[in-house]
Amino acid sequence: MNLTNLLALGTIDMETFKTIGIIVGIFGGIAIVLVILILVVGKFFKVDVDEKVTKILENLAGANCGGCGCSGCSGFANKLASGGGDISDCHVTSTENKAIIAEILGVELKDEERTVAIVHCHGGLENVAETFVYNGTPSCTACNTLYGGNKACKFGCLGCGDCASVCSEKAITVTGKLAGVDPDLCIGCGSCMSTCPKHLIGRIPESAAVYVACSSTCRGKDVMNACKVGCIGCGMCSRKCPNKAITMVNNLPVMDYTKCTGCKTCVSVCPRKIIIERL
Prior knowledge:
By secondary structure, the chain is α+β, with helices and mostly antiparallel strands.
């Protein structure tokens, strides 16, 4: 039954009827004004989506791994479109798609080889003792806040698996408190690198024959007191490398993969067997 029928029956008086009509009119007017405001704001404050950003985003891998330094692929696409990034910062997108993005940006695509992550440490429990029992949050980051972790080597892998937990490809496993990367599964996104509180995870070319599995910059005696296999900085690998592909920096060998031929001389001469041959 509507208001007119109620008025006719005498259920409500004329004054009440007028009041109800005014209220309905007010709310109706407010609704109309709001609709108009929405239309005006939508027209004058419309954010145009950059077509270049959209095309770039369509060709990125979509991993949203953060390895490029941005929060995700959308952020990286915007960075590239504004001229503030480099396509090579993304290690996940295929070379074919990078070529398309380079064409969109009007830049030349640099020749680059796919990279994979490796752990610069070989100090599992069989090689490095724990100095105390850690019963806190099962996280490398948390463990590291307590005296730099419970490994005797303060440069070594804590083995709690923070890197494995952020790896979208399940390429990292932890055995004996030591993380390892499966190169066949690794897409080189870099998530593990930014997660490791010890900064032990690096990036090497997929074709690299060897890598240095140590990060300690301590001198020989201190290294031997902490780890059975840690690099003692003797420099034998550097002196014996026929291609001068190894230099010593802060008591550690640094590989120049543009010079390395994969002869593996460094592997055979290292007294600590800390230069590892990749299979």
